[in-house]
Amino acid sequence: MTRVHGPAVVFERVALTLGRTQVLRDVSLRVAPGSVHAIVGPNGAGKSSLVKTLLGQTPHQGRLALEWPGAPGVMGYVPQALAFDAGLPMTVDDFMAAMTQRKPAFLGFARARVAEISAALERVGMAGKRQRRMGALSGGERQRVLLAQGLVPTPALLVLDEPMAALDEAGAQVFEQLLAGWKQAGVTVLWVEHDLEAVGRLADHVTGLNRGVLFDGPPREVLTPQTLLDLFSTRPRGALAQEAAA
Ligand SMILES: Nc1ncnc2c1ncn2[C@@H]1O[C@H](COP(=O)(O)OP(=O)(O)OP(=O)(O)O)[C@@H](O)[C@H]1O
């Protein structure tokens, strides 16, 4: 992969309220340029909402900025598993065209994209299934295609929302290889992930989120039994502290 210059991503006192729910409160964190930065937290913690806020899909309070080292580059996004109706007449190729070019998918690939799309599908092991309907793929195969669309055009910032969720062992290995390539190329990666072992091994930095930031730092320093208990415990932190003191 050619060298790119990923931006820093800055959240400053970001808050988000949806309906009556305060989904995010006082979230401040900085994703360093070219780093792999993981966000971990329990179900309903606000991780996907944080991603959607970054993508400009939700009205937030506070400051959110992308600090590019030069001219703004491409931002890629790999969503959490998408559902497709089994009868939907959209093949893998149609989906790749729809996601990666302005030209309507039914007119075929834009010439500039042909080689990149082939290479991306090859990299995720889906080159042999380009004419399959999206709705006929297994969950893991669909996830591989979602990863492939995030590769085209080459991003400088990549936002991944649980990209490993449906992947089997081989798929997880493909993902790890991609991550290593992005790291080497200087891509900034913001990565929402449930697999703490993978985060500990592969991320440069990790933020523990449960509506607000509970911890933030290098995995080796912040992923301790106590911080994880605090993050994933369904009981209020105050109650745990009181029990510990008793
Ligand atoms: N449009 C909405 N209106 C009201 N509440 C919402 C809306 N969207 C999300 N929420 C709530 O915001 C909270 C955070 O949801 P979010 O999907 O960001 O969590 P998450 O950390 O990504 O969870 P998971 O790990 O289960 O994917 C949840 O309680 C959810 O019900």
Automatic annotation (TrEMBL):
Molecular function per GO: ATP binding; ATP hydrolysis activity
Keyword check for Membrane: yes
Lineage summary: Bacteria, Pseudomonadati, Pseudomonadota, Betaproteobacteria, Burkholderiales
InterPro entries in the record: AAA+_ATPase, ABC_transporter-like_ATP-bd, ABC_transporter-like_CS, Metal_Ion_Import_ABC, P-loop_NTPase
Cross-referenced SUPFAM superfamilies: P-loop containing nucleoside triphosphate hydrolases (SSF52540)
The species this protein was found in: Comamonas antarctica
ABC transporter domain sequence ranges: 9-236
Name the UniProt record assigns to this protein: Metal ABC transporter ATP-binding protein
Keywords on record: ATP-binding, Cell membrane, Membrane, Nucleotide-binding, Transport
Cited PROSITE patterns: ABC_TRANSPORTER_1 (PS00211), ABC_TRANSPORTER_2 (PS50893)
Gene3D superfamilies: P-loop containing nucleotide triphosphate hydrolases
